[in-house]
Fold this sequence. Notes:
By secondary structure, the protein is mostly helical. The chain contains 9 helices and 6 strands.
Amino acid sequence: WLAKVRLSKALALFGERQPTVSVRIRYFPFMIDPSTKADGEEYVAYTQRRWGGDGWTHSMRALGAREGAPYANWKIWPNTTHASRMLMRAEQHELGDALIERLYRMCYEQGENVSLRETVARAASEVGVPGAVEYMASDQGLAELEQQLRGAKVGGKRVSAAPTFSLRAGAAAGFNFSGAQDTAQWVSILEQCAEQVA
């Protein structure tokens, strides 16, 4: 969520500096912990079981609070199966960014369980994904999701962390990295990419 907020801020700044350069964002599914229970798990219990507590989130929450992503009502550690398959559908309609933003806000700020089909369907409907309710009621996309998760690679290396980014500037090699870069660093990276296609 923090990474998304920072990237959005950077894109706004970059757009002011480079108004003629277009940027397209695409999201790909990734599951931090595929063994998470299907309906998600209570946040405190999950972090206690997996890491002995949620101490690792404290600095992230403090940064988020300063930047507009406070994680103010994070109640559930989600299983992202249904969110991920809806993300693939949303990407077909260039609505991936809007869906991600809505799901993050629901999960981290509104205390909703984005593991659930009905929650994902509501989020997707709100951002305009066609046929969201019917799609979520079915098992469409599950096989494709499994295939994408098995083949999740960036720069030839298997993706092992979230967030992971791969930037491409035309035919140039681009940049591959992980972590929630700060806004200034993002702007610098975007400007470097723009130079490659100038």
